[in-house]
Amino acid sequence: xxSTSPVWHPFTQHAVHGEIPTIVRTEGAWLAAADxxxxxxxxxxxxxxxxxxxxxxxxxxxxxQTDLLDQIIFAGFTHPPAEQLARRLVAITPPxxxxxxxxxxxxxxxxVALKMALGFWQHAGExxxxxLALEGAYHGDTIGGMSVGERSVFNAPYEPLLFDVGRLxxxxxxxxxETLTALDKACRxxxxxxxxxxxxxxxxxxxxxxxPGVLAEMARICKSHGALLIADEVMTGWGRTGTLFACEQxxxxxxxxxxxxxxxxxxLPLAVxxxxxxxxxxxxxxxxxxxxxxxxxYTANPIACAAALANLDVWRTEPVMxxxxxxxxxxxxxxxxxxxxxxxxxxxxxxxxxxLDLAVTDAGYLADAGPRLYRHFIARGCLxxxxxxxxxxxPPYCSTEAEIGxxxxxxxxxxxx
Length: 417
Ligand SMILES: Cc1ncc(COP(=O)(O)O)c(C=O)c1O
Hints:
By secondary structure, the protein is an alpha/beta fold. The chain has 14 helices and 16 strands. Strand 1 and strand 2 (about 30-35) form a beta hairpin. Helix 3 (about 55-65) packs antiparallel against helix 11 (about 300-315), helix 5 packs across helix 10 and helix 12 (about 320-335) runs parallel beside helix 14. Pyridoxal-5'-phosphate binds next to helix 5.
């Protein structure tokens, strides 16, 4: 039956989805529904909530900021929360990342990154326009984000709008050299403007993990050909992979980095794209045509910036890394029981992210297993949104070992594929 609500939900096929719970309150790792149900948020509300829902110091900072500023235009004006946040982001990221461009979602941070890369080469007077990306990548749902993402059911109807990119094979374990060889070849064949990657793990593409050494080698090859490296840390940032940013594990510094989701602890929408001085300088000119022509009305919203500043304070003053280590250990322990379970394959983990695939004959995002698994979890009070037959957990860092164990008990109750 059609819903009577006028709301059109994202990534939701209304014709088959069934009932949509109304959430009236959140607390820690839990959602409270209007009908009295409590639902464990095992995917941090699409990977944004890091410390827990309504984390007190972040809520407090939001309340305080609303007494001073709401939204102000950011072209030609600035404000203390944005200035402080930019400085503090530069301080916690390695040089040469020293310029901060604000936007309001992960997708827009990627659009900004792509435009920075192309603008850089254009203004530097070098004809480099070709972009490379990994097979299976997901970089958001704006036109640029979809273009560099995998061509799939997610974007098939919009194909005429998407631009061509060079595609590198995903560095599967044991076949990493294929990716590196393809990257080197692509850089020799055409003038590559940039390679964009999700460092260490493809998220929406199926929670596929690859080695830090491969990322380091990709960075080296890009550098040797003068191509820029864009790290899309929208999902991986803010501790998800066990370090503040995933690039740290490969000991690399990208030319451009995108951060969003956990930037505000997941409380408010905000994103940043950081770049080095060379990219800023290529746009810095008396010639106004070299202006970086990108904006959105809510760029650097002061309240969102205040939330992000409070998030940085949480990272500085609270044992966040210790919580991450504890959560990662709890996931590892709980995952162990599925390693020899014939119902599942590819049991894997990086930091706080754990994933396993239900063994099925029809894999992929549209596999029947997806909706069946979703119903299995939600009926048992767990928010888990499988990617096809891939079940993954990415809970907030406040989750306890008992809560994690309970979700794995729900996984244990899944019928074979
Ligand atoms: C790696 C990556 N990039 C970009 C995005 C897009 O972010 P947003 O949904 O905030 O636009 C996502 C979203 O999941 C993502 O995982």
